[in-house]
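User: My collaborator sent over this chain with a note saying "see what the structure looks like." That's all I know about it. Can you take a look?
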Amino acid sequence: MALIDFLIVGWLPASEFGLQILEDAIPKASLSSYSESDIGGIIILGGAVEGGQIAQDREEVSIYSSAERVTKAFELIRQYPSPHFIFSGFSGRINPTGISEADAFKQLIAEQGLTQMTDKTAHYEKQSRNTYENVLYMKPMIQEYGLKNEAGSLKPWLLITSASHMYRSIKIFEKQGISVIPVPVDYQTANSLQWRAFDLENGMQNWNKLVHEAIGTLAYWSTGKI
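Assistant: Without extra context I'll predict from the sequence alone. Here is the result:
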């Protein structure tokens, strides 16, 4: 049994198969087809920035392996400077200490020299502990700051999060009646499986993401959140 567990975790196609399906569930939007006037704003979901006590004490913000959430956010903020953007996230820890993820991202904005550029367009949601709360607490901000079309309806917002997390996120936004354009990042799988690859570390990370999303989606579905 131990050997079987070892092989299931380390043989990458075992975890890549399900993770690939999850990452491909929501196709990536072609941003080249959207001009600045087409979007209502930009949403960046937390989960990539390390706030907490370490960031507070060391005065340095660390970024997780899903750093593409942050780098893509900087890219789109520069590409679409007029629409407002919201970073959403307090902490996913059971007993959080130190600064919030939102405050850590605000520090990164300053370090990248974007403070003046985003002075009137930056907004930070600092209460949410999970994806459902991300959407729930952002909804009034989206309605207040989102750009509207001629009919008075909100234009869709760009949504930045990890590809494996996009399906659950989109479903929550849909349940809340908020239209978003998916900008998935942080892909962990290619178009084809690595049939000969064996890597315990990557395998554990893949299984962690896959099981986390499967349990989260089931829990949200069973409680009517999606």
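A starting point for your reply to your collaborator: The first helix runs from residue 2 to 10.
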